[in-house]
Design brief:
about 425 residues, alpha/beta, Dodecin subunit-like, Rossmann fold, 4 domains, 7-stranded mixed beta sheet, 15 strands
Length: about 425
């Protein structure tokens, strides 16, 4: 009876490699899930138009701790009202204007109260006395990406951090800037990264802004330097905006200890709001028009030529017959619809799914530009991006799926047709 040789045992050098490969295969799904799971999101507070005054320091005495605190809160109301240049009114009237007291820091003893407070005035009641009861002009919606740089690492939403929390907890309702603040949870931590701030592709930015309903992007950058553990923290802050990462302004702040870091970051957010508001007033904070190419208004003559050229391309692709183009010199050129009977005219747009191979980011931009330039296409956007794989486009087309496939073939694409979907490649 023949004996079969036993397989050779892996060498000691190869064994760690094989074990590592097995572990990677077994935990591959967990690694992918770990990129989007975890405590990342910090939900922003609801925007309110109330008037907030922060950083009111009080140091008062009283007959008891409760009496000292009440005296401190009354003093904070008067100081806050004075800080916003309110007219002289009685304490009872002033109390009727206050909707909340925010305790930023407080120390209470048997007869003394030392605190830093914030006072919130109801705009509906206080606006008339302050002369600010009218409507306030606001900016276009601005996607806000707070970047934290510390220890050589740039973080946006990958991990919860104090800079993200400062922006999430800041009350923006009374600001002239319409901030769009992502929570940073789920896939947002993978999409909105520091690398995105240096990306110049308008197609990428347009798709991201469309997902969040924003017109442009604001990039407040906080660079923190810890002098030594438990010691002062030096902060350098830079305001940038737009897909080209344009510089607006910068400033520096210093916290004496880690306990004062939240107060420093809140002060920085207020400084950023003042910078963005001033840029809006100066006319510098305008949405980039290149982010909304479909919003460019063309003259009726140019629009008619564009539509005629698109219809001619469709007919040439379907029949192979060259269609004379309409022009200002030859306005009587026959319309494509009169030459090719039975050709579908522009009507209600249908939405189809188009899959395209995208080996790199440039392929995504090229595919979007080519599909958008195809005759009959009303619009195209990415619903799923896979660099090095197959991305998915959502295409709005004035016609049926067969007509879309023919139009894409005329543009040089190899088209595979499926059920309400196409796969294209070069």
């Amino acid at each position: 009876m023949a004996t079969l040789p036993l397989p050779k045992a892996p060498s000691a050098r190869r064994l760690p490699i094989l074990l590592a490969g097995a572990l990677a295969l077994a935990s591959g799904g967990a690694i992918v899930l770990a990129q989007v799971l975890g405590d990342r999101g910090v939900p922003p507070v609801a925007a309110s138009t109330d008037i907030e005054v922060h950083g009111i320091a009080v140091d008062v005495a009283g007959k008891s701790p409760e009496d000292a605190r009440e005296n401190g809160w009354k003093l904070a109301q008067r100081l806050a009202w004075k800080k916003i240049s309110g007219p002289a009114i009685s304490d009872s009237q002033l109390s009727g204007l206050v909707s909340a007291i925010l305790v930023e820091r407080e120390e209470i003893s048997s007869r003394r109260y030392i605190a830093t407070l914030g006072v919130v005035f109801d705009r509906a009641r206080a606006g008339g006395l302050l002369g600010g009861g009218g409507a306030q002009a606001r900016s276009a919606p601005m996607l806000t990406l707070p970047v934290l740089i510390t220890g050589g690492t740039q973080t946006v939403f990958e991990l919860r951090n104090p800079w993200q929390r400062a922006w999430a907890e800041h009350q923006t309702g009374a600001s002239a800037i319409d901030y769009v603040r992502p929570t940073g949870s789920g896939g947002e931590s993978l999409l909105l990264t520091y690398g995105q701030t240096s990306r110049r592709s308008r197609a990428w930015w347009t798709n991201i802004l469309d997902q969040f309903g924003a017109a442009d992007v604001l990039i407040p950058i906080a660079r923190l330097h810890y002098t030594y553990p438990g010691g002062p923290i030096e902060g350098h802050f830079t305001a940038r905006y737009g897909p080209d990462d344009r510089f607006l302004s910068e400033f520096a702040l210093r916290a004496q200890s880690p306990d004062q870091l939240p107060q420093m970051l809140e002060q920085a957010v207020q400084r950023f709001d003042a910078i963005f508001t001033q840029a809006l007033a100066d006319g510098a904070l305008r949405p980039d028009p290149t982010l909304r190419l479909e919003g460019v208004q063309l003259s009726p003559e140019v629009q008619a030529l564009v539509e005629a050229a698109r219809r001619a391309e469709e007919i040439e692709a379907a029949t192979g017959e060259v269609v004379p183009e309409a022009s200002p010199v030859n306005p009587a050129a026959p319309a494509p619809s009169a030459i090719a009977s039975g050709t579908e005219t522009a009507g209600a747009a249908n939405t189809f799914t188009v899959q395209v191979a995208t080996p790199d980011a440039a392929a995504v931009d090229a595919a979007l530009a080519a599909v958008r330039g195809t005759g009959g296409v009303r619009g195209a956007s990415t619903s799923s991006i896979a660099i090095g794989g197959t991305s998915v486009l959502r295409v709005s087309f004035a016609g049926d799926l067969d007509a879309l496939a023919a139009a894409l073939r005329a543009r040089g694409w190899q088209v595979t047709q499926g059920a309400n979907a196409l796969a294209i490649s070069r």
